[in-house]
Amino acid sequence: MFAEVIVDVAAKQTDKTFEYKIPSELKNVAVGSRVVVPFGRRKVQGFVVDIHAEANYQGELKELSLVLDDQIPLIPELVKLSEVLARKLFTYRISILQAMLPSMLKAGYKKNIVPLTDSARALPIFNGKVIDAATVRSNADILLINKLLATKAAKIDYVVKNKASHKKDVIYSISNSKKDYLEILANLRTNAFKQKILLNDIIENYESYPKRQQELANLGIKSDVLRNAVNNNWLQKQEVDVYRDPTAADMIHASKVVQLNAEQQAALDQINQQIVRKNAKTFLLEGITGSGKTEVYLHAIAECLKNNKSALMLVPEIALTPQMVNQVKSRFGKDVAVLHSALSEGEKYDEWCRIRNQETHVVVGARSAIFAPLTNIGLIIIDEEHEASYKQDNTPRYHARDVAILRSEYNHCPLVLGSATPSLYSRARAQKGVYQLLRLNNRANNKELPKVQIIDLKKAMFAGTQFDISVDMLNVIKKTIAKKEQVILLLNRRGFSNFMLCRECGYVLQCPNCDISLNYHKDINQMKCHYCGYEINKPYVCPKCHSKHIIFLGSGTQKIQEELINMIPNVRILRMDIDTTRKKGSYQKILSAFGQGQADILLGTQMIAKGLDFPNVTLVCVVNADIGLAVSNYNASEKTFDLLTQVAGRAGRADKEGLVLIQTYNPDHYAIKLASVQDYEQFYQSEMRYRYIGNYPPFYFTTLVSIVSHNEPLAAKQAFLVKRLLTKKLSQATIVLGPTPSAIGKINNQYFYQILVKYKKEPYLAETLSYIQNYAQDIAKNDINVYIDQEPENIM
Ligand code: ADP
Ligand code: ZN
Ligand code: ZN
Predict the structure, then answer these.
(1) Per-residue pLDDT, 478
(2) What are the GO cellular component annotations (predicted)?
(3) Please, which of 103, 260, 503, 677 could form a disulfide with 549 given CB 3.0 to 4.6 Å?
(4) Are 769 and 735 contained in the same domain?
(5) Backbone phi, then psi, for 406, in 5-degree steps?
(6) Strands of 362-365's sheet, edge to edge?
């Protein structure tokens, strides 16, 4: 048999497959296997993407060296998908294959594959074996291997230190009858107290054996007693793999199944029909916040399971997963696997294995979970489908929605895109009838939408000149807290202030590596770059003219926190932004503390805007609605509308009435006005007109070509060359803009030049971009990188 392999080498022919002979002693080689192959004079990793009985190549073929995993990591669907996606995204297939694996399966394989000489194949240990993580159990093993490697006196062909492994647990099982144990107990020395505890437990709880070491330890039975018991053949000791459970520490609250209202039922019926008919139809479920979309998802998942199919559900960010995961877990229990970036690598690997081994049939996860090795999919859901986090902003630059459409087609199953504020892209497709629009117009519990008041900052009064919170907003916050109700306060900017300005000479302190001002972080008293992480001490005089008249402007969450503490005596505030949530589990901690009423105010960046459901929150405050409008992206209004609508939806979710206060210098801006009345449809109409006039998406498709180098003239020169190539090859009707330096021209000492291609139908696109991709490979060694990004999020 012969295998076609995609090899992992950074050379331009990577998308060609290479053919290898499968040696008969290699068992378990299949499409989707991760293998080691000889490539030139090296050994490299690769993926088997096809197997056939006849060789295509006429000459001498090399053999596969090694299969890396017991379990074939990639299911056939994903292997196929990698091919289609690579073509769509103008990227290499290997980068997609790697993106499909949990990080534990891609960790440092290259330098750790160590071929050994044939000499000294006489040592008794590891004879002819491949040593991998599964066989290396102890430190002693590792020491031994290292010693063997050092002396080259090993008979190991390769040592694959792939870190993937499960947690080990020690269990003790019994092999004697109850009667035997009674007899042993009777013959025991009278002062053998500890052994008596063990034997009594065995006799009384005979059925609950085998037991974990930890369980026995909890009874006060220590390892010396157990060792003794094993020596006496009372117990057998065994090591077993256990899965780490990322939600074990969470309180899973029971959620009762609610009776759907007529709107929800109508939407569900449409979805269920397609589940049963096995139709690859895409739905756009547009429902205002609180309309009960989640309940529709859960019912559809139940229908899917009833049809013996599995379900895949994506949620945008870790911030909102705890509550969503909780709901799904409470409904479907152990049948749920969770995949998102807040899990440890080990937890991710274990969850991934549970899916791969078909031990779970419901997957909830963030963007990359779209590559979960789930088979027999009957339903895919993308909640908050408009979220920017569904687009990966480094290679491979895929959008989870596009991948979901491909998987729905492969599995013949419906795809549900849900949102209160659908992306214009999806909403326009629904308009055309490409997606089927389902609408939920009412709040599920028949609650009124919260009242929204806009506070015009041009006219607002402030308690002091340095303050960001107007007197009006402050008074309502105080009143709310006095009523023992809670407040969510949004400011979409972290840190204390986002730039330092010298009032004498106008100097703004910038990052030396990036074209961006440094942010002041008061908690660590440092100036920090949010792009490259550069940090310096806070200056006390202007670094340029040494004047003392320096000020820190552009308030961030840390400053607001300080302001509130000064203005409201004894106020209890929880702050949630990147700085307070770096540690694993900190999201959950903050959210559950707030849920238990341990704070009056939850203050944070856009992390707190989405998905949260706290019944005691009756007031939502937006400190500055203009931050998002100030950026020059074509979709700034869409992002602002979305953020304001989402955060407003956090107020008044239970019995008490909700109020939303929005501070802005642009009270007449359509995005702010329409968000305040939660009128998505009107916003859609207005925004579409603006996009039409500006030749923006969704009226045009867009491709962004970025040319990046540490050497600015070189980047510029290559950018003009690429531009010339594009205009020469593409059709007349296609618009090619640029090259221009990107909005932040320099990041991490690299200069970015961008060319934007806008097109409706472009027959030469694929050919031209492939050409540029190859050209980019040729010039890559000269410190030039070219990135191709389909439908980028951030364009002007
Ligand atoms: P969305 O995801 O659309 O913002 P949710 O699914 O979170 O809305 O539902 C909002 C609230 O309404 C939740 O507290 C939920 O339990 C409740 N809810 C949903 N459906 C119903 C229903 N049919 N009857 C009563 N309450 C409902
Ligand atoms: Zn100065
Ligand atoms: Zn920087």
Answers:
(1) 97
(2) primosome complex
(3) 503
(4) yes
(5) -65, -40
(6) 336-339, 362-365, 310-314, 377-383, 415-419, 282-287, 436-440
Ligand 1, atom 10, lies closest to the CA of 290
Q: Are residues 130 and 178 in the same domain?
A: no
Domain with 198 in it: what CATH number?
Answer: 1.10.10
Q: Is the CB of 295 under 6 A from ligand 1?
A: yes
Are 547 and 486 found together in one domain? no
Residue 7, CA distances (Å) to 45, 60, 89 in order: 6, 18, 19
Same domain, 181 and 130: no
The span from the CA of 545 to the CA of 384, in Å, is 49
Tell me the per-residue pLDDT of 97-107, one tens digit each, with 9 for 90 and over: 989 998 877 64
**Weakest-pLDDT range from 169-173, 399-403, 439-443:** 169-173
State in Å: Cα 556 to ligand 2 middle. Answer: 23
- The CATH number linked to 635 is 3.40.50.300
| Whether 118 and 103 share a structural domain | no
Q: How many whole angstroms from 331 Cα to the centroid of ligand 1?
A: 15
The verdict on 581 and 664 lying in the same domain is: yes
Nearest ligand by distance to the CA of 444: 1
Domain-located, residue 444: no
Domains: count for the chain: 7
- Verify that 26 and 57 share a domain, yes or no: yes
| Cβ(487)–Cβ(619) below 8 Å | yes
CB 351 within 8 A of CB 338: yes
Judge whether 795 lies within some domain. no
> With contact defined as beta carbons under 8 Å apart, do 234 and 181 qualify?
yes
In a domain? residue 578: yes
Write the ipTM: 0.96
CA gyration radius, the chain: 30
Annotated binding site for Zn(2+): 502, 505, 511, 514, 529, 532, 542, 545
Report the C-alpha gap between 69 and 735 in whole angstroms: 48
Which range marks the domain in which residue 119 is found? 109-161
Q: How confident is the model at residue 743 (pLDDT cuts 50, 70, 90)?
A: confident
pLDDT band at 140 (very low <50, low <70, confident <90, very high): low
The enclosing domain of 43 has a CATH number of 3.40.1440.60
The protein residue whose alpha carbon is closest to atom 11 in ligand 1 is 290
Cβ of 652 less than 6 Å from ligand 1: no
* Global confidence as pTM: 0.84
Ligand closest to 550 (CA) is: 2
Q: Is 661 helix (H, G, I), strand (E, B) or coil?
A: strand
CATH label of the domain that carries residue 750 = 3.30.70.600
Which residue carries 């979220």 as its tokens?
Answer: 387
Amino acid (one-letter) located at 441 = N
